[in-house]
Design goal:
- By secondary structure, this protein is mostly helical.
- It contains five helices and two strands; from the N terminus they run ααβαβαα.
- The protein has one domain: Rossmann fold, CATH 3.40.50.2300.
- Strands 1-2 form a two-stranded parallel ribbon.
């Protein structure tokens, strides 16, 4: 739990699906400090290079020297209710809540299924995000689209 699964899966999916159009980073308020073993296994089996995967604090992205963030998506329902940092540059934010597969209790097969379902749901949402005609949308419409993607 704690930034060891969902956001890291999303980071790697966006890196792949955006085909270089976006940089992707995952982070959270209370990172576990390590990536869940099932996350690493799932991403590796899906062909992602996870050699640099790590659980990061969002503090890395709030300083002057941090990468510029255009979009921030929260995937943890608890985070959506927390006070988030003030992000430099006023990025568009949206909540894309997804159950945490790292919190799943059950057999190895049930846990693996939870991770696979998380991967597929994030894959679908990130594909939709990548299909967005960014240049054609004004900011309020773009914000609404990002929120709506999270409701799918």
């Amino acid at each position: 739990m704690h930034r060891s699964a969902r956001s890291i899966i999303a980071e790697y999916l966006l890196k792949r699906l955006a085909e270089g159009r976006f940089s992707a980073h995952s982070a959270g308020s209370f990172p576990k400090g390590e990536v869940h073993r099932q996350t690493l296994q799932l991403l590796t089996e899906a062909g992602h290079d996870v050699s640099n995967a790590r659980s990061k604090s969002w503090d890395e992205f709030t300083s002057e020297n941090a990468p510029r963030l255009d979009f921030i998506f929260t995937v943890c329902d608890n985070i959506a209710n927390e006070s988030c940092p003030v992000w430099p540059g006023q990025p568009i934010t949206a909540h894309w809540g997804i159950p945490d597969p790292a919190a799943m209790v059950g057999s190895e097969a049930e846990i693996a299924t939870a991770f696979t379902e998380t991967y597929q749901l994030l894959n679908d949402r990130i594909r939709e995000f990548c299909r967005t005609p960014f240049a054609e949308l004004d900011e309020p419409t773009l914000r609404e689209r990002m929120v709506n993607i999270g409701r799918q």
